[in-house]
Amino acid sequence: MLTVQKITKSFKENQILTDVSLQLHPGQLIHISGINGSGKSTLFKIITGLIAADQGTVKIDNEDIIGALIENPGFLEYENAMTNLKFLGNLNKRFNQTKVIDLMNQFELSPNGQQSVSKYSVGMRQKLGIIQAVMEDQNIILLDELTRGLDANGIKQFIILLETLKKENKSVIVASHDYIEGLVYNKSLNLKNGQLIDK
Questions:
Q1: What is the pLDDT of residues 10-22, one digit of tens each?
Q2: Which of 102, 100, 146, 157 shows the shortest CA–CA distance to 123?
Q3: Are 134 and 140 a contacting pair, CB within 8 Å?
Q4: Model pTM greater than 0.85?
Q5: Domains of the chain and any CATH numbers
């Protein structure tokens, strides 16, 4: 389970988050909406430990593993997709080639393709980012503006993936400034003026 308590964060004089709290239980799908710059990515970075909060706490159960797609995913630009995913998976010794191949086929990325990621479109990079966020059997998954560049089929496959994750009792937070048709959330929240409120 993920528990965020009274997170506050400022950058110089600009306060981004003010006393933000939330709980994410196993099997839950939560949506956080908010305009660009509202602090969604900042909140995700604090949860994953990429940046520190000024105040507040983030608590994660010991057995939980976080997967995340935050802003523009970074990759080894001159390597192909499979090499990138192997590299990331082997960092934690959790690379599962069968699962990765299945995910790549689902999102129409060739497991045997030799094209470097530097030549990928925005949508292809986004698909690769989604795959790396779920391929290690992570049970807390944070997805930020994940439909960026995705075509209709890419969005459809993403919705199917989320339904599968929910059945597997995985916990997911989707942050986006727009509504994703076809997704059914357990809870919808809005991040506005630094505060997270129920919609």
A1: 998 899 999 999 9
A2: 146
A3: no
A4: yes
A5: 2-198 (3.40.50.300)
